[in-house]
Amino acid sequence: MHSVCTFAVASPSSIWKFTRTQGPKEGESFASISKTAETMQSDPEFAGLIVRCAPKGKIDVLVALIRPFPPRSHPRVTISSTGGGTQTFEASMAAAGAAVLLPDEVSAFAAGKWQTTPSLSVVVKESDTEIKGVVTLSGLREAYNSLAASCGQ
Fold first, then answer.
1. Interatomic CA distance for residues 4 and 124, integer angstroms
2. Where are the beta strands (DSSP E) in the chain?
3. How far apart are CA 139 and CA 97, in angstroms?
4. What average pLDDT does the segment 117-145 reach?
5. Do the Cβ atoms of 66 and 47 come closer than 8 Å?
6. What pLDDT score does 97 carry?
7. What digits encode the pLDDT tens for the residues 42-59?
8. Each residue of 7-40: pLDDT tens digit?
9. Share of the chain above pLDDT 90, in %
10. The pLDDT of residue 151
11. Rounded to an integer, what distance in angstroms lies between the CA atom of residue 22 and that of residue 31?
12. Checking DSSP bridges between strand 46-53 and strand 29-36, what pairing results, if any?
């Protein structure tokens, strides 16, 4: 079952895309919301941000990339937000290297302070490669609440 529903709010840059994908086990599915990068302010390899349901009621935050990193990479991800300062995290790879899984502490930002932050600037660094991107966060509160309500269903 592959259902995709998109809810639109105001301008196209405020649209978070809601998707539900089939999990590896029978009857298992995962909901996620994603926002594409601001193209004019981002490198071509930077796709956007994904917030998804994870097992045991957790919520994961990932950075989506166009060009994958090696699956065993541990890129350093620096996130800057307007008025929220800059923080750097060691991340791991998911989705065959095309998504960078941020540590659990970042999930709390998506549930809280990012919901009132206009945009995030993200830099993903792995060996000598650096990929930069900007994602606007407008509409995150509504999208996050919809996602949280569908986690574990």
1. 28
2. 4-6, 17-22, 29-36, 46-53, 59-65, 76-81, 85-90, 92-94, 99-101, 119-126, 129-136
3. 28
4. 95
5. yes
6. 78
7. 999 999 999 999 888 889
8. 444 445 568 999 987 766 777 778 999 999 999 9
9. 67
10. 86
11. 9
12. antiparallel
The tally of CA atoms less than 13 A away on the side-chain side of residue 11 is 4
The 3-state DSSP class for residue 65 equals strand
Count of C-beta atoms within a 10 Å radius of residue 64: 20
pLDDT at position 38: 94
Range of the domain at 14: 4-150
Place of tokens 């008025």: 83
- The CATH number of residue 84's host domain is 2.60.40.1880
Q: Quick one: what percent of the chain has pLDDT higher than 70?
A: 87
Number of domains in the chain: 1
Q: Is 27 exposed, middle or buried (0-12, 13-18, 19+ CB in 10 A)?
A: exposed
CA-nearest of 36, 13, 31 to 145 is 31
Tell the residue number behind the tokens 């269903």, with chain if given.
153
d(CA 119, CA 93): 23
Paired tokens of 144:
């996050």
